Amino acid sequence: MATRSKKENEKNERLLSVIHLKTHFYIEDIVVKAVDGIDFSIQKNEILGIVGESGSGKSVCALSILRLLPPEPSCKISGQIYFKNENLLELNESQMQKIRGAEISMIFQEPTTSLNPVLTIGEQIAESIKLHQKLDHRKTWEKVVEMLTLVKIPEPFRRAKEYPHEISGGMKQRVMIAMALSCNPSLLIADEPTTALDVTTQKQILYLIKELQKKLRTSVIFITHNLGIIAEVADKVMVMYAGKILEYAPVNDIFHQPGHPYTLSLLKSIPRLDVSRGIRLKVIPGSLPNPIDKIQGCPFHPRCEFVKDICRKKEPELKKIGDNQFVGCWMYNNEEAIHFKKII
Amino acid sequence: MENSVLLKVKNLIKYFPVRGGRFSRIIGYVKAVDGVSFDIKRGETLGLVGESGSGKTNLGLCILRLREPTSGEVIFKNRDITKLKQTRISEIYKDMQIIFQDPYSSLNPRMKIGEIVGEPLIIHKLIKNKSEKTAKIKKLFEEVGLDHTYIDKYPHELSGGQRQRIIIARALAVSPSLIICDEPTSALDVSIQAQIINLLEDLKNHLSLTYLFISHDLSVVKHISDRIAVMYLGKIIEIGNSENVCSSPKHPYTKLLIFSVPIPDPEVKYEHIPLNDEIPSPINIPSGCRFHTRCNFVKEICRQIEPELREIEKGWFIACHFV
Ligand SMILES: Nc1ncnc2c1ncn2[C@@H]1O[C@H](COP(=O)(O)OP(=O)(O)O)[C@@H](O)[C@H]1O
Ligand SMILES: Nc1ncnc2c1ncn2[C@@H]1O[C@H](COP(=O)(O)OP(=O)(O)O)[C@@H](O)[C@H]1O
Ligand SMILES: [Mg+2]
Ligand SMILES: [Mg+2]
User: Fold this and answer.
1) Contact list, A231 vs chain B (CB under 8 Å)
2) Given CA atoms A241, A247, A253, A259 in this order, what sign does their dihedral have?
3) CA B21: distance to chain centroid?
């Protein structure tokens, strides 16, 4: 019980707050509003899932937190990103370097491109340890083996001497996780970490991330386009579309009483292994928004079956519709919401 | 005719020689497809599922002879097309078509999409004159849900979903009876995937098509297929009615695959089954049962004797010593 209440307490402690974040790219005379005014936060010991289709701004959101984007004037980040009471957007590059890897680390979809082909995996983990910790040679290698064991790589002594091309995709992602966690960060950002893997390997990596999150009490931002994965890993979910958050809610609300028409349609448009055959998929008409098109009003309105006049003109704000459920949709301003509740 | 067999694949094999050493001699083979047999009935959708590298694409290409099989038979409408002379291979494409995963790389970027869709009509001499061609292209555009004003656009002007519609329209141009769909929705976003899956289902009904539907995504395969074949390292290890295979899988590998699919419901609780990540190379296929190196139920016999596909219930075949 004691551990539980500790966990509850930690959950109410805020680790990161993002306030009105905008990340815009300027290419010649075009503006790409990749992230366009989003607010969210993550508590200690929590997994926040970010879900959205391609181009919705998920990766740019993560890269903005770590400030891993091109410099001004080609990219402008505005708003505030408070991490442990410090606004990351006000730090200089050398201060930011102390945060990256040590306090906040990130793993990506393609482990192959993030690993150096000419170093053994042991050497690479050692390098990431040495970046932020002052350990002698022996202690560093002890830590390398400890990290390989932590991510359940069998025969860690032998494996440490292998090169990236000698190991499978799943093993590479384990190595990336070992590197990312080697300095005990308080926040891990995982951007589609299993998308390039086969489903059986994906399952093992998801389990590993969840298990390590519990063990190390790291907070995690888990980015994916896969709703199944979101349901499996996330505590809280942020649904993104065209650089905006359309819905932000605890994972159970997202799946059992989705508030935004987009969330609902997405759920009904995926084929499911757990339902019998013969159910027709719901179709969201049209195509994904082009990032350079300026959509007036709600970004989802051109594809929304509930569209009204106001949706074309004015953008809705996120509105609280349940205990912790926030939805950006005009229907919550009147009785139509009740109608919507009935159809889900 | 209703339940007659349209395509029969018998012991199909596709090996790629691996060369090495000083004289670049053959030192082994990549056994991409290693003895596959199955039937597809007219009007049926057979799903083919397996992890990457299991040989799905090679199997599809060999059926169409876009890649020459090493051995085996492909009997399409009672004719063994592996025996067909090279010069007559194009006859196959009048009746059998393939749709690939990446709609961009399979479209010529310099051709207008109207021409792309119309090309097979010319190649196979299916139209008499220009107006017939225009009319046919228009009809094909309509069938796949593309506005005919797109006819003069180029592939790069279209979205991924629209490009996949073009590929489908081109495949339909010859009025084929069988379409092999190789991961047709794997590169698409969720909301676009649903559009294409529904389109494929509608076309199948309107045009009485038969599909071999290849995908690594078991949820998609289950949704669209009447029967499912599960492939592992070049061989089918389970085949049967898709509802049966998905709700009570028998082969330990099928069980693992199904257990691994994340379900979009946070209330579903998973138990953890540890699994060796490492899929053996198709150059060194394990002895006995090819899955034995990753199987949690492995026994001595599995290392030595390769299990045959055995029928355990009508139409349900499993290759495992312990089912
Ligand atoms: N470095 C960049 N320069 C210009 N545009 C970019 C850059 N990175 C991303 N974008 C654009 O920002 C939008 C959001 O991209 P991204 O965050 O990568 O989407 P997601 O990860 O959700 O698929 C896209 O339209 C993308 O093309
Ligand atoms: N042209 C080729 N030469 C040698 N090996 C190949 C060739 N094409 C495919 N392979 C190998 O054959 C195996 C099966 O490949 P493929 O049919 O593409 O599988 P899948 O479509 O199931 O992912 C893989 O191990 C792949 O590397
Ligand atoms: Mg991304
Ligand atoms: Mg393939």
Assistant:
1) 262-266, 268
2) negative
3) 35
